[in-house]
């Protein structure tokens, strides 16, 4: 059985990308090719090999919403499970978001938790997430919850806190109607590494993974010269810790890979910058 590989986000300078370098990525591919060749897939749309689980190897799917429902209906709950339900109900009531739009994941969802485990919840939908975000802010101001910031990205995201001496984290999941791209609709071609400043024009998909920031006021800092016709319209982060680090109207500094995006059906061309390509040790999004 394959074990999960977890990446942790920790220090103030926060170098999560160090764990996702081109050299490490090549090593992962080689290890999988040698030991788990079925899990190495050449993606024709990205023109690269990726690690991917074949559908016929999937024996079960743990859906956060379903796991919360099962936890709610369970008649034998331990202390952490009870505290998780209490926390979700508190936030649901304060945010006026129905319980059906929440879910649990992590060790609690898998039934692998211990007394030291954290509370990990998801919120379905961008609007619901913003309501929950505001509700948690209010509960912090009232002293019911407290934020926990381990680095400047935690402070920007405000996704982690403490409830009755237990760490909680919350993130967003797209509802089906919020999924706008299907595999095979676009072809991607990397152009060059870029570093620039810009302003967030739209943050409505910034809380998801991948996190999508529509941008404007592009100002190059380093890298190849960017002509007007290939200025990127969006910044896309494949690295989870850069979710929701900036809001509409805020300035960000970005280091990533400029990509050409082609709509396979229409031939329309656009450009984006991707953070988390494994091509560089210096890919990031920083609020400024």
Explain how this protein is built.
- There is one protein chain.
- This protein has helices spanning 22-35, 64-73, 79-95, 106-110, 126-141, 152-157, and strands spanning 40-43, 48-51, 102-104, 119-124, 146-147, 160-163, 166-173, 186-205, 211-223, 234-237, 251-263, 269-275, 284-287.
- With 288 residues, the protein is an alpha+beta fold.
- The chain has 3 domains: 16-57, no CATH class; 64-177, 2-Layer Sandwich (Beta Polymerase, domain 2); 186-287, OB fold (Dihydrolipoamide Acetyltransferase, E2P) (Beta Barrel).
- The chain has a 5-stranded mixed beta sheet.
- A hairpin with a 2-residue loop joins β6 (160-163) and β7 (166-173).
- α3 packs across α5 (126-141).
- The protein is globular.
In short:
The protein is α+β, with helices and mostly antiparallel strands and 288 residues long. It has helices at residues 22-35, 64-73, 79-95, 106-110, 126-141, 152-157; strands at residues 40-43, 48-51, 102-104, 119-124, 146-147, 160-163, 166-173, 186-205, 211-223, 234-237, 251-263, 269-275, 284-287.
Main sheet overview = 5 strands, mixed
Count structural domains: 3
CATH class of the largest domain: Alpha Beta
Low-confidence stretches: 1-19
Strands, total number: 13
Number of helices: 6
CATH architecture of the largest domain: 2-Layer Sandwich
Brief descriptors of the model:
6 helices, single chain, five-stranded mixed β-sheet, alpha+beta, five-stranded mixed β-barrel, OB fold (Dihydrolipoamide Acetyltransferase, E2P), globular, Beta Polymerase, domain 2, 288 residues, 3 domains
């Amino acid at each position: 059985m394959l074990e999960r590989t977890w990446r942790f986000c920790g220090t103030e300078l926060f170098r999560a990308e160090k764990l996702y370098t081109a050299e490490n990525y090549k090593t992962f591919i080689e290890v999988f090719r040698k030991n788990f060749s079925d899990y190495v897939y050449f993606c024709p749309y990205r023109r690269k090999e990726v690690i991917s689980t074949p559908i016929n190897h999937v024996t079960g799917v743990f859906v956060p919403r379903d796991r919360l429902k099962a936890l709610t209906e369970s008649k034998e709950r331990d202390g952490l499970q009870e505290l998780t339900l209490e926390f979700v109900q508190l936030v649901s009531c304060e945010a006026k978001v129905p319980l059906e739009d929440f879910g649990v994941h992590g060790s609690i969802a898998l039934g692998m938790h211990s007394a030291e485990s954290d509370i990990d919840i998801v919120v379905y939908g961008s609007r619901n997430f913003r309501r929950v975000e505001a509700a948690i802010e209010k509960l912090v101001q009232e002293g019911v919850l407290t934020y926990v910031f381990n680095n400047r990205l935690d402070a920007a995201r405000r996704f982690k806190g403490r409830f009755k001496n237990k760490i909680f984290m919350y993130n967003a999941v797209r509802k089906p109607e919020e999924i706008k791209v299907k595999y095979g609709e676009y072809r991607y071609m990397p152009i060059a590494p870029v570093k620039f400043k810009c302003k967030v024009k739209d943050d409505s998909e910034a809380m998801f993974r991948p996190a999508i920031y529509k941008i404007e006021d592009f100002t190059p800092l380093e890298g190849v010269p960017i002509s007007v016709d290939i200025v990127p319209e969006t910044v896309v982060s494949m690295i989870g810790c850069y979710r929701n680090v900036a809001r509409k109207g805020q300035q960000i500094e970005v280091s990533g890979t400029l990509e050409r995006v082609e709509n396979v059906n229409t031939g329309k061309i656009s450009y984006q910058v991707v953070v988390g390509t494994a091509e560089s040790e210096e890919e990031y999004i920083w609020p400024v």
